[in-house]
Every structure is written in structure tokens, then in C-alpha cells.
Amino acid sequence: MVALNRLKASEIRSAKSVMICGGGIIGLCCAYYLAREGFRVTLLERGAEGDDSCAHGSAGYISPSHVIPLASPGMVYKGLKWMLNSRSPFYIKPRLDTELMRWAWLFARSCTAAHTRRAAPVLRDLCLGGRQLFVELSDITGNAFELKTEGLLNLCRTPEGLDHEAHGLARIAQELGIEARVLNAAQTAALEPGARLAVAGSIYFPVDAHLTPRKFVPALTALLKEMGVKFLWNTSLYGWRASSGRVAAVQTTAGDLTADEFVLTGGSWSAGMMAGLGLRLPMQPGKGYSLTLEQPRFQLTKSLILTERRVAVTPMGRTLRFGGTMEISGHHNAIRPERVQQIVNAAQQFLPDFTAADFDGVKPWFGYRPVSPDGLPYIGRLNNYGNLTTACGHAMLGVTMAPISGLLVAELLAGRKPSVDLRLLNPNRYA
Ligand SMILES: Cc1cc2nc3c(=O)[nH]c(=O)nc-3n(C[C@H](O)[C@H](O)[C@H](O)COP(=O)(O)OP(=O)(O)OC[C@H]3O[C@@H](n4cnc5c(N)ncnc54)[C@H](O)[C@@H]3O)c2cc1C
Asked: Which atom of ligand 1 is nearest to the CA of 395?
């Protein structure tokens, strides 16, 4: 377990005000830990309360097993191959865009074994810290968000797939102290007896957990209101007033808003939100889809990954959610049916009791993961502005890492030693 610094609300009572810019799961968690620290917190969000932030339709994994960053060896080759196929799990739509080209070049540069070796322990600490804090939040809210700590099964269709996972992800996880059990088909079936699985085996990660995101966000929002956090919904940030190395105010549709400290939590929009400050944060929106069956024909006890198809399956209360695909094609709200179909195909392949008819009429949801080129979030203070901090770029792990990101931001603003080593997460690393 990560040794998290305990924040005592009574310890430092600061009257400082903080403006959090962006009300997704990361912004909400920053608000929680900052308010607990004694800061006066306001959160601005361009959407209405209860709008669809990226976490809402996510797979809800809390996943310390995800220790390998997206930018890892082999991804350049896969990316180039998959680029030509809009049905592939990771699709980059070729286009003439200098930001995308720079991002792609930085991504390719990070796809090395050395980067995985450096990044994996940091991802582990962030994810384990996140899991630990979700357990605390579950206690505080009476488990309003259906946290389940039964682990996750990485299902593999083929013996080759299983062998690949056993020698790759499972080995790296074990080296980092994360329990990973390699199971054959019968052992896998014994762990999920209510479902017929067409698999060669699986890797079981007992430490992984899951929650129901559409219950977590309202539960945390309600808690924040009780704690005195002020919300400015339907308020868009479009600029900054800054001088002498400090931000004085954010310019918004509700007028200029001042604060002592500013925290940027705009998810995949963060880079654009910084326009005018002369700072650079390479980021691409990684679009993903999910489909939720309200009355599935059977229910699972654990979350699953359909490994060869990169699809996530999560039981959420009585419902069952299938999510996946990563599409780097900008913020375009069009739904690509061929990508949604890949999720339905994967479900039938691994869980053969499902038919295409089970998904008839199910409305696809989509969201934009904030994807940094090296697969690591940007958490820390930004150069040139002494009172501007960011927490964004969490890509596929934004739910898992949300509470620990909030805690780290609170620790930074309170002048404490951060619970996790932030050096690799420095938001100025591409400046
Ligand atoms: C299909 C799918 C499955 C996923 N599954 C998982 C999972 O199982 N586990 C996991 O850990 N992660 C998962 N993720 C990733 C996770 O959902 C994201 O990393 C996380 O939700 C990002 O949160 P965020 O708060 O940074 O961004 P967002 O939720 O995008 O929040 C940013 C907010 O900023 C607001 N904003 C933007 N511009 C402005 C502006 N100008 N003014 C004011 N407000 C603004 C937006 O409206 C938005 O509400 C998944 C993602 C997808 C798409």
C-alpha cells in the first residue's frame, strides 16, 4: 500500500480561495480534498449539474493492474497498422493538424521499454492510492456508489493471448508487487460461475475494484455542497487575466472571477483552456464508447477485460456496461457505428450467451479521455504562474486516479510533501 499523508482538517486552516476550472471527476475530487484542507473552494463548469462528464459512461474500473502506460513498446507499430482501420481498438484518424503531429511524435518517443520501466511504478502508486481513497469515500458516503472490491479478470480468447499477457502485463504487475494470478479456462469459470465464457484463460487481479460512476458523481457533489463548496454551473471559461507571474482572474461567461489559487481540471479540453497563457500541454481527446444493458440476461460479479478486443465489461448494480475503443480524431460528436459494433462483436465472442439482439436499441454513449503523449497525467504547478496548478491528462485511468489527484493537488497547495513522487507528472515537461 502507498503511505498516504493524512490531511487533518484541523491542522492547517487556510482562508485561501481556490477556483477549480472544470467539473469532471478530477475537478470534483480536487474540490473535496481542498475543502477538507480548509480552502474556500469554488468550482466552475460549463455544463449543467448532472451533465455527462467523461466519467459518467466510463467502465468504472479502479484498476491498479493497469501499470503499463498507453505509450509502451509495440504501440507505434500497432498504431501505424491500426491507423488504416477505423474498426481497430486504437484508431488515429490521419489529418493535417500540427498539434496532433507533435503529440504523435512525442507519443512515439515514449513507446520504449525504458519509459515503461520509469512510468509503471508511478502509475502503480497513483492507482493504489486511488483505490485506498475510494474505500474511504465509500465509508463516508455509505457506499452510495456501489464500490465492489472483487477484482478484475483479464479474459484471453486464445492460448497465445494468455501467454502474451502472462509474460507481459502479469509479470510486470508481479514485479511491482501487484498480485496477478494466471488462470486456465476452468479456474476462470470457477471465479465467474454465473456466466458462460469462451476463453482460454485469464489473468486475475484481486486488488482491482469497480464502482458505478453515475452514482459516484452525484454522491460526491452532494457531499461537496454539505462541505460548503460553491458551484458555478453553466459557466464557461474563455480567458485569463494574469500579470507579474500570477493569475488574477479567469474570464468567464459569468464575468471575471478572482481567487488566490486556480486549478485547471478541464480534461481533454485543458490545452485549449490554457490558450492565452503562453503555456503548452500536449493533449488529444481519446474518444471511447460504452453500451449499458439495463436488464442483462445474466449478471457478473467482477469486472472483465476482453483482452484481445480491448473491451471492458462492468457490472453496475443490476446493469451491465460494455465500453472501449480509443479514437484519436479530435472533439467530433459524430458516432461511428462500425466502432460501436466492435464492442457488440467482442461481447458475443467472449460471452456467447449474448446475441446482437441484446444490444438492439441500446443508445451508445461516448466520452473523451484526456490523453497525454506519455500516458501520464499532468499534476503540478505550471511554470510562469505561481498560483496555477493542473490535474488533467489521466487518459484511461481518470476514474481510478481521481481521488489521489485531488489529494495531491490539496497537498501541493497546502505546501505539504506530496504522497506520490510527482517528478514524472510535471506539467511543464513538454514546455
Ligand atoms: C469508454 C471509456 C471508459 C473508461 N473507463 C475507465 C475506467 O474504467 N477506469 C478509469 O479509471 N477511467 C476510465 N475512463 C477514463 C476516465 O473516464 C477519464 O480519464 C476521466 O473521466 C477524465 O476526467 P476529467 O475530470 O479529467 O475530464 P472530464 O470529465 O472531461 O471533465 C472536464 C470538464 O471540464 C469542462 N470544461 C471543458 N471546457 C470548459 C470551459 N471552457 N469552461 C468550463 N468548463 C469546461 C467539461 O465540460 C468537463 O465537464 C474511461 C473513459 C472512457 C471514454
From this structure: 19
Q: Residue 13 pLDDT more than 50?
A: no
Interhelix angle for 113-140 vs 402-413, to 10°? 90
**What is the mean predicted confidence (pLDDT) over 357-362?**
96
Residue 15's pLDDT is 77
232 Cα distance to chain centroid: 23
How do strand 311-316 and strand 319-328 relate by DSSP bridges?
A: antiparallel
48 Cβ partners below 8 Å, 6+ apart? 233, 234
DSSP string, 33-73: HHHHHT-EEEEE-SSPTT---TTTTS--EE-TT--S-SS-T
Ligand 1 and 47: CB distance under 6 A: yes
Q: What domains can be seen in the chain, in order of their start residue?
A: 64-97+146-210+284-371 (3.30.9.10)
Identity (one letter) of the amino acid at 193? Answer: P
Indicate the pTM of the whole model: 0.95
Q: Within 13 A of 130's CA, how many CA atoms are on the CB side?
A: 33
Residue whose CA is closest, atom 16 of ligand 1? Answer: 398
What DSSP assignment string belongs to 306-354?
EGGGTEEEEEETTEEEEEEEEEES-S-----HHHHHHHHHHHHHHSTT-
Per-residue pLDDT reduced to its tens digit, 363-419: 999 999 999 999 999 999 999 999 999 999 999 999 999 999 999 999 999 999 999
For the beta carbon of residue 307, count every other beta carbon within 10 angstroms: 23
At what angle are helices 25-37 and 213-226 packed, to 10 degrees? 30
Which residue's alpha carbon is nearest to atom 50 within ligand 1?
58
